[in-house]
Amino acid sequence: MDDCSVPILGTLCYCDSFCERPGNGDCCPDYPRVCKGIIEPPPQIVRLDCEVDGRKYPVGSTVNVDCNRCTCRQVTDHHAQLQCEDRVCINRPELVRQINDGDFGWKATNYSFFQGKLLEEGIRYRLGTHQPDRPTKEMSELHLKRREPLPEEFDARIRWPGLVHGVRDQGDCAASWAFSTAAVASDRLSIQSRGLDQVEVSPQDLMSCINGGRGVVCQGGHPDRGWRFLVNYGGVSEDCYPYEGARNNVSATCRIPRRRVPTEDAQCPTGRVEMKHFSTPPYRVPANEEDIMQEIFASGPVQALMLVKEDLFLYRSGVYRHTRLSESLPSQFRQSGWHSVRILGWGVDRSQYRPVKYWLCANSWGNGWGENGYFRIVRGEDESMIESFVLAVWGRSYASYYRQTAPQPEYGEREFEGYPEIN
């Protein structure tokens, strides 16, 4: 094949066996292709990607991993890595693992409805109770004169079946103050009327209609101001004014027409008229285990303020106690805020190596959280300050004809030392 040649550095390179020397690249570089018809495969293109939950994302693409935005970036010729923001989410798989592997007396989980939420958003929108101001903190405590023998376990739902209302969901709306106030008012009205005035008081009415109709929807609030509203103006039922506070851009304008003089009835947004439901001024239950138990045993659920910390969001079951697992981490991992809940009863958990006393509480994060919406928390140690500020009321309603027609229940016969006033 003397006619098959190529000039290289002024020399003709011929297509013959001389060019089939392995490792010699200075003679007939196209010999395999031209002379022998061997086509070399094209160079292999290395495509790098990052894998998240079984899905692959190419270099340069972005994906949300919980509350953080992540980008797939090439870090070497043959390796790509997901690089994410370092924001603190409500869901924290590592903290869940530490709690479940530890000996804390309760179990944790990550919740789908918290997916994509920052911890600071949970504190801002899933709680919603302002710390009491000084005059409220100094409210006189009301002491029961008569003491009852208390059982080791008590559940208001069992003591008054059908009269204690279930768990609701405030959504991403800072409204625990309104939900706990409305729930305790509903329970007390139902219990004290023996079911004749069985109503679910509307938290939306409190949220939208206090402050002269300029409400505080999803911005947090003071429970004592909610009670003041029920004392002075009365509240309507959930059927009359359904909850809408979690909707985006919902107006805070009150949809219940206000009159200059408080009346016994109200016109619902639908136009129908219903009787209002009132309460007495709230009274503060002494901040000790025995008095709180006596109050619940005698008259039903109470309202309790508590300081929620980062790990309560992850509570699944058991008796909660703050774990302090985040104390060594930066401050953004250790956030807290005030919340208000109902205490329905108490008990003793004997599933651990030593008995643990607990309060039975109803939260307002829906039935999918905790123990079907409820949680148990250590009793007698003011865990999360849940025993530090507890309120109770008596319900009253102009529709409550039972005052004249129905016999008063034994648990309605109360004797108190002193009675607080509210302005």
From TrEMBL:
It holds the Pfam family Peptidase_C1. The keyword Disulfide bond applies. Keywords: Disulfide bond. GO terms for biological process: proteolysis. Residues 1-42 form the SMB domain. The keyword Aminoacyl-tRNA synthetase does not apply. Signal peptide: none annotated. One of its GO terms (molecular function) is cysteine-type peptidase activity. Belongs to the peptidase C1 family. This is Putative cysteine proteinase ixodes scapularis cysteine proteinase. It comes from Amblyomma cajennense.
